[in-house]
Prior knowledge:
The protein is α/β, with parallel strands linked by helices. Helices cover 36% and strands 18% of the residues. It has 7 helices and 6 strands; from the N terminus they run ααβαβαβαααβββ. The protein has a 6-stranded mixed beta sheet with strand order 2-1-3-4-5-6. The longest helix has 17 residues.
Amino acid sequence: MQYLIDQAGVFPARAAAHSLDLGSLADGDSPRAMFITCSDSRLVPALITGARPGDLCELRTYGAVVPRFTPHAPSGESRTIDHAVEQLKVTDIIVCGHSYCGFVETALRAGAAEDADGPPSPAGATAPMTGDLTAAGHCHVLTQLDVLSDYPSIAPRLVDRSLRLHGWFYEIESGATLAHRPRVNAFLPL
């Protein structure tokens, strides 16, 4: 913990050394994109993208799960998504899964258990029952994009092309980031 405290204490000096004008951030929030990803500590959106303060509106959830939109009981996650789309007017939303994801691994195990009359999969589980963790992770990202496309704030912006959805997959072991390419239906290096 002391390391984190020390780093927070010297952040203004580090920001100045990197020519970050922190004062300009007080003028308003206008991120380049929304980045939805897992809460796994091995995945650091700003390091992966080279983002600076103000560049990304981040939403981190266990397994990068995007909840279905429910108008009468909106979740904190759905409110964050709507805020990014409606107030911040982001033009891109990235859903980024990753290798060795505990959520996807749990969904795979639960799916195998269901096949043997075991307990049901966790909410939001989307992993195919191939046993391939990477393929399941890719499928999970695509499912979250499908869920997003049903949001009332997102659907019209997809139609008028003022908003784009992107599926990414970060390989923890190599540092490579793959992007889903719909034309070939594959995750390929950026």
